[in-house]
Amino acid sequence: MLRRVTDTVAGRGHVVLVEGEPGIGKTALVRAACAAAAKQGCQVFLGAGTSSPKALPLVPLLDALDVSDASLDPDRAAVVRPAAR
Ligand SMILES: Nc1ncnc2c1ncn2[C@@H]1O[C@H](COP(=O)(O)OP(=O)(O)O)[C@@H](O)[C@H]1O
Ligand SMILES: [Mg+2]
Fold first, then answer.
1. How far apart are CA 67 and CA 61, in angstroms?
2. Model's pTM, two decimal places?
């Protein structure tokens, strides 16, 4: 995983699938990789999904990018505001 971070810093991005039983350490591994990426100068965005059937598919992405009406960044808050007619 840390090699993938180093690759990313060098401009070679990857998609990494982390799977395993609950409690095996997936979240800890991802958080460690995010910390390593941040330490190497990457801007890290982290969102988490849920297995709930009521979950909206794009919410983890919006969370990761801090796109919500509560965002302190007015541009990000504007994304979710209804467009003026
Ligand atoms: N490498 C590790 N060494 C020691 N404890 C760990 C390690 N990885 C995870 N843990 C601990 O094991 C527990 C479950 O880890 P977690 O990352 O939440 O698992 P998962 O996301 O796979 O369900 C947590 O309490 C975490 O702190
Ligand atoms: Mg987890």
1. 9
2. 0.81
Instruction: Give Cα 63 distance to the centre of its chain.
Output: 8
Ion ligand 2 residue ranges (Cβ < 5 Å): 26-27
Which one of the ligands is nearest to 51 CA? Answer: 2
Give the pocket of ligand 1 (CB within 6 Å). Answer: 20, 22-28
Render pLDDT for 15-27 as a digit per residue (tens, 0 to 9): 999 999 999 999 9
Reported as a pLDDT band with limits 50, 70 and 90, residue 8 is very high
Count CB-CB contacts under 10 A for residue 15: 5
The tokens 């840390």 sit on which residue? Answer: 2
